[in-house]
Write a structure and sequence with these properties.
The chain is an alpha/beta fold. The protein contains 15 helices and 14 strands. The strands form 4 sheets. It has a 7-stranded mixed sheet with strand order 7-6-5-8-11-13-14. The chain has a 3-stranded antiparallel sheet with strand order 9-10-12, covered by helices on one side. Strands 1-2 form a two-stranded antiparallel ribbon. One of its GO terms (molecular function) is translation initiation factor activity. It comes from Amphimedon queenslandica (Sponge).
């Protein structure tokens, strides 16, 4: 065989598609085979796109059918391993859609079935509370937690998810039946103490880890009813620290008894005994024939005045009150019941009556790290008027209300009250604000707290002694050393 024939055979074998596979696209000898492979790749991509579009359409149809199926039929449908579909499937409690869960909250699922705390909090927000926003947002305070009127806290709530004691406490918070930093903190720790007594550690879990995870959704439920006070936040941090310090080999009953004992000691030392010490300090400051001005209602201020009166001191009290809560009436009733001479005025008459006052005695919601006093709104105005008349302002505050937060105004962090509380006005012409929601140019703002500059406060009376406002960081540092 000649060399020419062999070359022709080799060329023919290269061109034959049966004997030689097609060259890849972008090869050196790219001809028609490369063009054919490019067309096939484009067709494959288009086919994949069509399949994806069909799958998406099918998923949309399936999710739409699940949302439209009644609850009875959806409960018989397929569910996951834990008895409920994931959050991405938008169904909870046996196939009930999230849109229906706000209306039908009668699902019975156990908190142990929830895989993570984040999911538990998500389910609580969607299943446990039905609420409606009241009023419109004020642009300057739109970043704050907007007030929402809660109703149906207890309607068909599963006892396996939220204990009845926590649900009852949330209702009392939202309705304003329990108010005040001390009262709210005492009630919260009492509810948690009951939860700890009823708690049992699941198999293959440690109490020091599982109990903290169990309390997280309960705390979130309380926050949904009303934002936590500074005293409640500090108490929760302390309780979590106590839980984490429990040794793994400690028996369950012994650990629960120690936690309950620690809660009782915390309330005894940080609240009850602290109030006794503050009251004794106030009795030393109050003199005969003093005229003391108080604002709204503070449990420690009322206790101090009653104790001073029982010791034989003769003084007069001016109770300043303001709408909408009129908390000063509670202070007035208690002081009059003890036989203390009192006068009752409204907030707009403070500048008129201040010239008769010898001391201003106020309570506090919190004492911030920069020395500012956070208290019932109106406290800053009263302190400013007292400063202009050279009247000393004394603030009674327990050290467990001290906060590491820094705040110089009431805009960054505050709590919004119910705007409808401002509506009831007794006038002969009728209620002027009854149709305020129909007026687009009118917004009602009901702030709860304000902050008072340390320059306006003469002294802070605590269980650690009579201190200036600038001593807050020192007290916080010492308290951290005592805890650790």
């Amino acid at each position: 065989m000649s060399s020419k024939e062999s070359e022709e055979k080799s060329k023919g074998s290269k061109k034959d598609p049966k004997t030689q596979p097609q060259r890849q696209k972008g090869g050196k000898d790219g001809g028609g085979s490369a063009e054919g492979s490019g067309a096939s790749a484009k067709e494959a991509k288009e086919a994949k796109k069509k399949l994806k579009a069909e799958r998406r359409a099918q998923k949309k149809l399936e999710t739409g059918s699940v949302g439209s199926v009644p609850s009875k039929t959806s409960q018989t449908g397929p569910v996951g391993k834990t008895g409920q579909t994931g959050l991405t499937g938008k169904t909870v409690s046996g196939g009930v859609s999230c849109s229906e869960s706000k209306k039908d909250i009668g699902g019975s699922y156990n908190i142990e079935q929830v895989k993570s705390t984040a999911r538990a909090v998500h389910l609580l927000k969607e299943k446990s509370i039905s609420h409606s926003e009241d009023g419109r947002q004020v642009p300057l305070f739109s970043h704050l937690h907007q007030y929402e009127r809660r109703s149906d806290f207890t309607t068909s709530l599963s006892p396996n998810l939220i204990p009845p004691s926590v649900v009852r406490l949330a209702v009392l918070y939202s309705q304003g039946i329990i108010c005040g930093s001390n009262a709210r903190c005492i009630a919260m720790l009492g509810a948690f103490k009951k939860v700890i007594k009823e708690y049992t550690t699941p198999p293959q879990k440690i109490l020091s880890r599982d109990l903290e995870v169990t309390l997280k959704p309960y705390i979130s439920f309380l926050i949904s009813s009303r934002p936590l006070s500074v005293s409640m936040g500090n108490a929760i941090k302390w309780l979590k620290l106590k839980i984490t310090k429990i040794q793994p080999n400690t028996p369950e009953n012994e650990a629960k008894q120690e936690l309950c004992k620690d809660i009782d000691e915390y309330l005894q030392h940080r609240v009850s005994l602290a109030d006794e010490v503050i009251s004794a300090s106030c009795c030393k400051i109050i003199k005969d024939h003093d005229v003391i001005l108080v604002y709204a209602h503070s449990s420690i201020v009322v206790k101090s005045l009653i104790d001073a009166h029982n010791k034989g001191l003769k003084f007069r009290v001016i109770v300043v009150d303001s709408r909408p809560k009129l908390e000063g009436q509670q202070t007035l009733r208690r002081l009059v019941k003890e036989g203390i001479p009192c006068s009752y005025i409204f907030f707009n008459a403070v500048s008129y009556i201040m010239k008769e006052v010898s001391k201003v005695l106020l309570g506090a919601h919190s004492l911030l790290a920069n020395g500012y006093v956070m208290s019932r709104i109106g406290t800053a105005t009263i302190s400013l008027v007292a400063k202009s008349y050279n009247v000393p302002v004394l603030v009674c505050c327990e050290t467990y209300k001290f906060s590491e937060r820094v705040q110089a105004d009431a805009f960054v962090s505050n709590e919004l009250g119910d705007p409808n509380d401002l509506v009831p006005i007794n006038r002969r012409q009728g209620n002027l604000l009854s149709n305020w929601k129909d007026l687009p140019s009118l917004n009602l703002l009901n702030l709860t707290y304000d902050v008072t500059s340390p320059d306006l406060v003469a002294m802070v009376i605590t269980e650690e002694g009579n201190l200036p406002c600038t001593s807050v960081p020192v007290i916080l540092r010492l308290s951290q050393m005592n805890i650790t």
